[in-house]
UniProtKB/TrEMBL annotation:
Any one Pfam family match given in the protein's UniProt record, by short name: Metallophos
InterPro entries xref list: Calcineurin-like_PHP (IPR004843), Metallo-depent_PP-like (IPR029052)
Name of the protein described by the UniProt record: Metallophosphoesterase
An example Gene Ontology molecular-function term: hydrolase activity
Domain named Calcineurin-like phosphoesterase: residues: 2-220
SUPFAM superfamilies registered for this protein in UniProt: Metallo-dependent phosphatases
Gene3D superfamilies xref list: 3.60.21.10
């Protein structure tokens, strides 16, 4: 299990070693590395100094100023074309690193419409869908919810809840974002709450999957907890650790 790969294709190529399958919970793209401001699409286009500044503004929760800075930087450029070209380059490397079989869903910074172009044989993309792996039923819910960061794949509460409901009862509930529990949503380094899903939390309470697995929060206050009979686990910030979380049964 990996999540929040954010451009780490080298470690991704080894992530499935010794495993029967790899599951990826999204955020393949790296727009900006908050630990190393020289990495990602943003510094490639605008330089490290501007990356330093936008991280400073976002960390201070000065989101309006951060958006105004970004608007000024993009002025006169074809923003969509520039981002898509950079994302395509990253996706070519990342999808090539997936072993077979891989089961994957989208993160909030991914661009789903590009995935069919890069997903190779052996990679199954699921969103609001189920798959049987080793005798257990896995359900997948991709994307994120609206946030001040305005990342590319944020969807409405209603659309997200509909995808959760479509899964029904599953043994392993896989999503990019966590259920809406404060300890699972708070990032201790960014010092803010990330968006969690109340629909996921309701589904866990109603159907009691064995596991609820997710990523999104890079440095969570709690990496795992039980909700009733369900073990909830943040599988980790793979971009930083390069180490998958292993699920055995």
């Amino acid at each position: 299990m990996v999540s929040d790969v954010h451009g780490n294709s080298t470690a991704l190529a080894r992530a499935g070693d010794g495993a029967d399958a790899l599951v990826c919970l999204g955020d393949l793209v790296l727009f900006l590395d908050y630990d190393d401001h020289s990495r990602g699409i943003f510094p490639e286009l605008f330089g490290v100094e501007k990356a330093d500044l936008i991280v400073e503004l976002r960390t201070a929760r000065r989101f309006a100023e951060a958006r105004e800075l970004a608007r000024s930087l993009w002025h006169g450029m074809d923003r969509d074309a520039a981002i898509e070209a950079a994302v395509r380059k990253q996706y070519a490397e990342l999808f090539a690193a997936f072993p077979a079989p891989t089961y994957a869903t989208y993160g909030n910074v991914d661009i789903p419409r590009l995935w069919p172009e890069f997903a190779q044989d052996g990679t199954t993309v699921l969103d609001g869908e189920r798959a049987e792996i080793g005798g257990l039923v896995f359900g997948f819910v991709g994307g994120g919810l609206p946030s001040p960061m305005r990342t590319p794949h944020e969807i409405s509460e209603e659309e997200y809840a509909a995808k959760v409901a479509a899964l029904g009862h599953v043994d392993v509930l896989c999503s990019h974002i966590p259920p809406d529990v404060p300890e699972l949503c708070y990032d201790t380094v960014a010092r803010r709450f990330e968006r969690g899903s109340s629909a996921l939390l309701d589904a866990i309470r109603a159907t009691s999957p064995r596991y609820a697995l997710f990523g999104h929060v890079h440095q969570p206050l709690a990496r795992r907890m039980r909700i009733g009979a369900t073990e909830c686990v943040n599988v980790g910030h793979f971009a930083s650790t390069g180490t998958p979380w292993v699920l055995e049964w």
